[in-house]
Amino acid sequence: QAKQQHRGSSEYFSPAMGTDARERFKLLKGLRAGFEENRLFVVYQPQVDLLSGKPIGAEALLRWRTEDGKFVPPDQFIPLAEKSGLIISIGEFVLRTACHQLKHMIELGYADFRMCVNVSLAQFRHPDFMTVVNDAMRDIGVAGRNLELEITESMAMEDTELVMHILANIKKLGITVAIDDFGTGFSSLSHLRQLDVDRLKIDRAFVREAQTSTAGSTIAQMVINLGRGLGLTVIAEGIETEEQRSLLLDLGCHEGQGYLFARPMPADQLENWMSQTKAGAE
Ligand code: C2E
Ligand code: MG
Ligand code: MG
Ligand code: MG
């Protein structure tokens, strides 16, 4: 099945393509090489309780450092990895790396640590997906209750029957699910109600606008009310200021992540951040 996915990459060889396509192909070649030569790695951005400031867990975010030391943003290379099918193996790498880090955090005594991993549509729909997740958990020795998968709003709406089926299997493992970038897609509310998810993640565009415009804060309030009405937890991403933190708390959102608390950081720094922040909160 994985082979079939990789076949899609041949489309990049089309001679009729312009510079953009050639650029993309070069980037994809570099990404493949980078992946094989271990230049892809995972950083972790802490998530906190907005009221107490206590750490809840972290989101695993992929990074690619090219041979000449430059960083290519995930927003540029993830879509390429998705189109080419490379995301299947890269996604498994992220999941397993994050599970190892999760295991480490639990061994350090953070028994309730929640490790959140972004999952692409191609991964999610792949027939081997549940096996990949199951094997990672078993091999590495982590429990589903410490693991959260983030799917985007558009993914959740894609093919509701299939999505519901996959979600049911994920839930059987005790894994929680969050809908990422919530508010940017066009969710059908009746579909959303049918989906067995645990958390809505408010897109950072609304966090920013909540502070600067009435429309922005109205949308943030609506998303928070919607989530709470459906019995879901709501988390806000991209919190950069103290004002945003207190505004979100006022609106009824109790979890968040953003530069105000911590930037995405390498694994070794996460430990330090956790121990310092835990101490600071007590
Ligand atoms: P996302 O999942 O919505 O991740 C949150 C993004 O917001 C991250 O960008 C993070 O660094 C950034 N961010 C967090 N706090 C702040 C803040 O206070 N201010 C601002 N301006 N930005 C903040 P990043 O790491 O560049 O990732 C971008 C996107 O790439 C992610 O958005 C996700 O969609 C995708 N991505 C990253 N890693 C993975 C992965 O392993 N697998 C998949 N499928 N997608 C990934
Ligand atoms: Mg995410
Ligand atoms: Mg997001
Ligand atoms: Mg995003």
Automatic annotation (TrEMBL):
Q: Which residues form the EAL domain?
A: 24-278
Top-level taxon of origin: Bacteria
UniProt-recorded name of the protein: EAL domain-containing protein
Which species is listed as the source? Answer: Roseateles albus
